[in-house]
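Example record

One chain of 442 residues, shown exactly as stored in the release files.
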Amino acid sequence: MTEFNRRKFLEGSAGVAASASLGTGAAVWAPAVHAQSLNLKPEKGAKLRVLRWSRFVQGDIDAYMVNVKKFTEKTGIEVRVDNEGWEDVRPKAAVAANTGAGPDIILSTNDDANLYPDKLLDVTDVAEYLGKKYGGWYPACEAYLRPDGKKWIGLALGASGSYMVYRQSQLKAAGFDAFPKNTDDFLKMLRALKEKGTPGGFALGNATGDGLWTNWLIWSHGGKLVDANNKVVIDSPETIKALEYAKEMYATFIPGTLSWLDPNNNKAFLDSQISVTNNGISIYYAAKNSQDPKVHDLAADINHASFPIGPVGVPTESHLFFNQMVMKYTKYPNAAKEFLRFMMEFEQFDPWLTGAGGYIAQPLRAYEKSQIWTVDAKHTPYRDGVKNLRPAGYAGKLGYASAGAGADFIVCNMVAEAASGSKTPKEAAERAQKRAERYYKV
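Predicted structure tokens for this chain:
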């Protein structure tokens, strides 16, 4: 598989025209080229049920529900939206796929669509329409949702960027004027922060989003779960080096990270227990909008950066990918596809990106021009989350095996075992190898 972080992206047929901003800060750019209408005809009496992950920033769900209301007003189609935690959406989606009953549309994470591709509606017509109109999909979107290179089994919604979130004043107090660019200096910074009593902390529990830093760790040292032929190769010298590095990182962490799930590092950071972690922009968003003066004042001290470059010498970004799946059992396939098309159009999607405050990076190139990415310089690092995303199944082909291995937290568990010392790096790698081979059967 091609390295996504070094891949060149061809310009699509649609350009974008940037223009001056409104006084409210809303973007007023618009696509320069418009594709022809799909002319989807929703079924008479259609009703839709949408299951999606719960918001980490309030503006996301607020803007999403405004768009849902607009869709109902325009089409007369009633839409029910159920919100669940990330960890709950995945099993509920699997049950729906296996029983043939449940929500018509499911918004889930990473490559969950590849767990049951034959249970999903073909949405190629919608994907091609949107791609032509909005400058094309980033390669990671096709890797996740077009596994055969032909049929689209879902539409990308975007990704929550997993970037470094840190306190500028505390880094400076530890002797660092800028966030480290390489893993050697990064480890020095973590040690210095601990010595100052302002340690860092990274989730080592089964955290769907914040546990993705463990992919970066392995990839940055040259390790990978599988090779380009889907052969499991996680038990390698490169992985061992990464796990030895993880042990040194863990020695600088605040206690308790082995049980951290996605909300824990947010809370620890906003409580001033840690000075650096990996996260979406939700920590900054929460601080800016907090009614607690102490928390609100943190916003000015928060900044963001990309993960340091490891021995491989190139960025190795891993982010929480969001997909939109239409279940094949739906009684209203045209209505469901029309809903997704409507929600991805500029008039709805750009206000939603803006409402989410930079928490979600776009999957279509045209939306790079959204003003949300430049209205605040602290938003900008999150803009290219999907563009630079390396799929969790790297370097193999995505499918049931990659989705299952990801859902089983094999890499995250391996790092936690080695970092904490419950297993040696070699033992942890050997166990991960055996677990992964159960999914990647020859």
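Notes: The mean pLDDT is 91.
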